[in-house]
Design brief:
Layout (H helix, E strand, L loop, with lengths): L1 H90 L4 H28 L1 H22 L4 E7 L7 H22 L3 E8 L3 E8 L13 H12 L3 E6 L5 E8 L7
Parallel strand pairs: 1-2
Antiparallel strand pairs: 2-3, 3-5, 4-5
Helix pairs in contact: 1-2, 2-3, 3-4, 4-5
Length: 262
């Protein structure tokens, strides 16, 4: 009889221990799930905050560029237009032997006016959206060629896909950032830009033949970080490769959205 009671006690204690063990395991699993959910929510909240912050910065930059574009086109452009008219009036009253010199000045001012107009187009995102990314790139490359900065080459393959206007602006600003770095630092003589449209994505390849740089020494470069940050906003993959004396190669792969393909 005593042994039976002992066995029953052992069984009861075993059941109680198993109950608490199972309860503890369930509680631990529920706690971990709750913890992971909170961590995921915090991560998503931080991600949304970072995206909103970056979008706000981009909106401020775009508005600033737009204002500069207006100033160039409306104010400086108007002043240069007035200067051209004044030179034309002056030229009618000059002796023939000095007319050629004045005409050279008139042509220089006229070229400056056209350059101001072209530059204002590349700064205003509304103009870029109206003429498209291909035409915008061509305008910028033509400007470089006209100013003898370097010799550009532009190649487009595949059937053009009209992409989201906001994404288009961000992609173009990435390209402009590369152009700016090339003009300022690369000491390049040739610049190749290639747009390749496929069914699923747009691949943009840009290469200069400049002095290049050591990849390890410029990983924290603000220009490169800025380009990668912008690429992340449109879910694009961006890769930059360079070696001293071998120029820079930038590759950007932008996946099309479903509404882009319609």
């Amino acid at each position: 009889m005593l042994e039976k009671e002992q066995i029953l006690l052992i069984v009861y204690f075993t059941i109680i221990i198993l109950f608490f063990a199972i309860f503890g395991i369930i509680f631990f699993i529920a706690f971990q799930k709750r913890k992971n959910k909170l961590l995921l929510e915090q991560f998503k909240a931080k991600q949304r905050f970072d995206e909103e912050l970056q979008n706000s910065k981009l909106e401020i930059q775009e508005q600033t560029l737009k204002n500069v574009s207006w100033e160039l086109h409306d104010n400086i452009g108007q002043l240069l237009s007035t200067a051209v008219m004044q030179i034309n009036i002056l030229n009618t009253n000059l002796e023939p032997k000095i007319k050629d010199s004045v005409q050279d000045i008139r042509n220089l001012v006229g070229d400056s006016l056209q350059e101001i107009r072209n530059l204002s187009k590349t700064l205003n995102h509304e103009v870029i959206q109206n003429i498209g990314i291909e035409k915008s790139i061509q305008v910028e490359l033509d400007r470089f060629k006209k100013l003898n900065f370097l010799t550009p080459e532009f190649i487009v393959t595949g059937e053009e896909v009209v992409i989201n206007p906001k994404d288009e602006i961000i992609i173009y600003r990435i390209i402009q950032e590369f152009f700016s770095n090339t003009i300022k630092h690369a000491e390049a003589s040739h610049l190749l830009v290639k747009l390749e449209y496929t069914i699923d994505d747009l691949t943009i390849t840009i290469k200069d033949d400049g002095i290049g740089y050591d990849m390890e020494s410029v990983q924290a470069n603000s220009g490169l970080l800025n380009m990668k940050s912008r690429a992340g906003l449109v879910n694009a993959n961006l890769d930059s490769v360079s070696e001293p004396g071998k120029g820079v190669l930038l590759t950007l792969q932008y996946p099309f959205k479903d509404d882009d393909k319609v």
